[in-house]
Amino acid sequence: MEVNKDEAERCIELAEEQIKIKNKEKAEKFLHKAERLYPTQRAKDLLVQIKLMAPAPEPDQQPRRRKQSPKREDHTTPQYTTEQLEDVKRIKSCKDYYEILGVTKDATDSEIKKAYKKLALQFHPDKNKCPGAAEAFKAIGNAVAVLTDPEKRKQYDMFGSEEERVSRSHHHHGYTYTRGFESDVNAEELFNMFFGSGFGNSNVFVRRNARVYRQNMGSSDSHHSHQREQQQQSGFAAFFQLLPILLAIVLSMASSLFISDPAYSLQATNKYTVARRTENLGVQYFVRENFHSEYQGSVQRLELSIEEDFITNLRHACYREKNYRDTMIWKARNFGDPDMFKSAQSIKTPSCEKLHKIRGMGR
C-alpha cells in the first residue's frame, strides 16, 4: 500500500479544498478514496470534520417565503433527544475530570484525547441543543486541557478532590466546572485544535485580553460587536494583566514545595544542559548531567512522550500563527488596504511548516 501514499495525500488535499468551499459530498468522496488507498489519521479526522458541516444550499433552490399564519402554535418540538438530556445530566453529576471523560486515573494521553474527541462531537453546541449541553461541553474541554498537561495533571491528582469541594459553585440549574483547575484556552478553541476550524461557517477566533472570541467574517456588525466587547472588558483589563504574574508566583511556589522536577526540558536551562535527540523524529531535548545514573524509567517511552509533547506544542503554535495571519487578512479587507493585505498574506507560519515536515517524516 506504500505505493498509493502519494495518491492518498493528493486526495486529502483535494478534500480540504472542498471543505473550504463547503462541498460536503465531494470532500467525503475524496477522503473515502484516500482511506482505501492509504489509511491515515489525518483522513479520519477530516471525515469527523465534515460530519459537522452544514449542507451547502442548491444553486437553483430559491428561498421559500414563510407564510404568515394567523395563529401561533404554543407547542414547539424539542430539538434534542431524551438520550442527550441524560448524557448532560451524567456530565453534571461527575465528581472529577476523569469521570467526565470516562477514563481511569492511569489513562494515557492518547486514551484521554480519544475520549475527548468522542465526547466533544457529542456535546458540541452545533450538534447538541439540549439545555446544559454548552456547560457540559466546557467541562469536557477543561478536563482534557488539564489532564493532558503533565504539570497541571500532577497538581490536580494531588489537590483535585479538595479543590472541587471548595470551588464548585452553583450556576442556575447546574454547576460551573472550574473545580480550581482551569485551562488556558476556552472549549471552542480546544475543539478547533483537535478538529480544525476550516468548516461549518466563516468564524475566525481572535485573542483579545487573554481571551479568545469568535468573529463572523460575513457579518456587517462584527466591527461594532468588537467595540462593545472591548468596552465590557476595559474595566477588568488591569486585573487580567496582573493575573499571569500572580499565577506564575503561586505556581512556582507550589512546584518548589510539592512537585519534583521533570526528567527533561525542550529548552536548554541552567539545570538541563545536556542535549539529546529522540531516536524516531530527532526532536532535540535537554537533560541534567546525572540523567544516566538518576533516571530509572524507559528512555524509549520517555522519548515518545517528548515527541508527543513537541508535536502538541507545534500544533498549538501553528493554530496561533494561522489565526493571527487570518485576522490580519480580515483587517486588511475590512479597511480596503491593498498594501496591508499583501503584507498579511506574506506572514510566515514556521510552526506549521515544521509540523508538515514532521508529518512527512512519519509517513
Written description of the protein model:
By secondary structure, the chain is mainly alpha-helical. Among the domains are: 1-52, no CATH class; 80-161, Orthogonal Bundle (Helix Hairpins), CATH 1.10.287; 274-362. It contains 15 helices and six strands. It has helices at 5-20, 24-37, 41-51, 82-93, 97-101, 109-123, 133-147, 150-167, 187-195, 222-234, 237-258, 291-294, 299-335, 338-345, 350-362; strands at residues 169-171, 174-176, 203-208, 211-216, 274-277, 284-287. The longest helix is centred in the last third of the chain and has 37 residues, at 299-335. Residues 165-181 and 198-220 have low confidence and may be disordered.
Summarize the entry for a quick read.
It is a single-pass membrane protein. With 363 residues, the chain is mainly alpha-helical. The chain is built from 15 helices and six strands.
What's the main sheet like? 2 strands, antiparallel
Compute the average pLDDT.
76
User: How many separate helices?
Assistant: 15
Shape: globular
Rg over alpha carbons:
23 Å
Q: Approximately how much beta-strand content do the residues carry?
A: 5-15%
- In percent, how helical is the residue content? 55-70%
SS-based class: mainly alpha
Number of strands: 6
- Record the strand order, biggest sheet: 1-2
Measure the end-to-end span.
Answer: 12 Å
Uncertain residue segments: 165-181, 198-220
Note the run of SSEs as H and E.
HHHHHHHHEEHEEHHEEHHHH
Protein name: J domain-containing protein
InterPro entries: DnaJ_domain, DnaJ_subfamily_B/C, DUF1977_DnaJ-like, J_dom_sf
Domain J: 96-160
Pfam families: DnaJ (PF00226), DUF1977 (PF09320)
